[in-house]
Specification:
The protein is of the alpha/beta class. The chain has two domains: about 150 residues, Beta Barrel (Lyase, Ornithine Decarboxylase, Chain A, domain 1), CATH 2.40.37; about 230 residues, TIM Barrel, CATH 3.20.20.10. It has twelve helices and 21 strands. β1 and β2 form a beta hairpin. α8 runs parallel beside α9. The chain is globular, with a radius of gyration of 23 Å. The relative contact order is 0.16.
Length: about 400
């Protein structure tokens, strides 16, 4: 984001003009930034055989999926509907990995029929999978390395109390299940959580994964998940991808020699690719002053961006309408019928009713976690690609709220 001629712009496009054209609230995604991040990750790990599987739970709009596919990305999915979205976006089934949690064997079977790669994270499903398919359908196994990592307990997935993955302490049991049903395991996977800063966490997990391979002799890839931290505040420490790549690449090459063949190295970034590319634009409805606080009430709420209330996450807020105004302290809140605060005690350029505000780093887990709470419409989505803007999801209307309802005969 830059200020050009007194206006905030993204990839040369004026954000205020986007809000005027498409209305607010609206999510705006900079496709140029997404591809910049994708290329950064690919280039950091050259010359390894790296495969990126974009974690589409972060942002699953079909236009974003197509954009990443065109640049060589695969897809990480966690539900059968995400699988179907990926297939509709043109992904080859072999480039999609399906990593569900606590789903039925029937959903696994549907994914097998669709031809995507199955990643199994519990022994019960592994046993059922083996009984059904034996060695006719390959699978990956998700291991829980018991590493506590991540910026929030709700997004830490590799610790001992996590519901995700099969414990490293159960690998002997896994090996017996695999042998008894002649299951073809061609990959091992781990994901410790989000917002990881220390390259040592990845290396610690890598050693656990390397050690686990001794029971699996026909592997084709190791999948390290993701969890790269992006910056939400000015001065935030972020994951140094180049430093991580330097350390992990060397150790991975050594491991491949020990294992006896070169394996593919997989990552599943979501937030890393799309978070910084996203901007959420809202209009100021009202200024409300109490004895202690000046509230800025906007035409949105936690129904559109739930992360601040769910994770206590921080999103920088900018007044697009008054870039160089006097700085004042405000608390920015939404229009939902319970506390839905976007930011407490924020220093913003002086705000007036009707101004347009921008939340930065809104590309990941923004629209995908939105809802119709309070019978509110979901916002529009706009893509900036190269030098133009495109509407990639229209704003909902009242008929969308009723679309799946069936009125009872009373």
């Amino acid at each position: 984001m830059e200020i050009v001629n007194g206006q905030y712009t993204v990839s040369g496009i004026n954000l205020s003009e986007i809000a005027n054209e498409f209305g607010a609230p609206v999510y705006v995604y900079d496709g140029n930034k997404i591809i910049e991040q994708y290329n950064r990750l690919i280039n950091a790990f050259k010359p390894l055989n790296i495969k990126v599987k974009y974690a589409c739970k972060a942002l699953n709009n079909s236009s974003i999926l197509k954009l990443l596919k065109q640049h060589g990305s695969g897809l990480d999915t966690v539900s059968i509907n995400e699988v179907k979205l990926g297939l509709l976006a043109g992904f080859d089934p072999k480039d999609i990995i399906f990593t569900p949690n606590c789903v039925s064997i029937e959903e696994i079977q549907e994914a097998v029929r669709l031809g995507v790669h199955i990643n199994i994270d519990n022994i019960s499903i592994l046993e059922q999978f083996g009984h059904l398919y034996g060695n006719t359908v390959p699978c990956c196994i998700r291991i829980n390395p018991h590493i506590l990592a991540g910026g929030n307990t709700k997004i830490s997935t590799g610790h001992i109390d996590s519901k995700f993955g099969i414990s490293v302490y159960q690998l002997r049991h896994v090996a017996r299940v695999v042998k008894s049903s002649n299951i073809r395991v061609n990959g091992l996977h781990m994901h410790t959580g989000s917002d990881i800063l220390d390259a040592g966490v990845f290396l610690q997990g890598a050693e656990i994964l390397f050690d686990a391979t001794k029971d699996f002799l026909d592997l084709e890839f190791l999948d390290f998940g993701s969890g790269f931290k992006v910056g939400y505040k000015e001065g935030d420490i972020t994951t140094d991808i180049e430093e991580l790549a330097g350390a992990l690449s060397q150790r991975f090459q050594e491991f491949c020699k020990e294992y006896g063949k070169d394996l593919e190295l997989w990552f599943e970034p979501g937030k890393f690719l799309v978070s910084e590319a996203g901007y959420f634009l809202v209009k100021v409805n009202v200024l409300k002053q109490t004895t202690a606080t000046v509230f800025v009430g906007v035409d949105s709420g936690m129904n559109h961006l739930i992360r601040p209330m769910l994770y206590d996450s921080y999103h920088s807020i900018i007044n697009l309408s008054n870039p160089e105004g006097k700085q004042r302290i405000y608390t920015v809140v939404g229009y939902i019928c319970e506390t839905d605060t976007f930011g407490w005690d924020r220093k913003l350029s002086e705000v007036h009713e009707g101004d347009m505000l921008c939340f930065k780093n809104a590309g990941a887990y923004g629209f995908t976690m939105s809802s119709n709470y309070n019978a509110r419409f979901k916002p529009a989505e706009v893509l900036i690609w190269k030098d133009k803007t495109q509407l990639i999801r229209r704003r909902e209307d009242f008929q969308d709220l009723l679309r799946s309802e069936i009125v009872a005969e009373l």
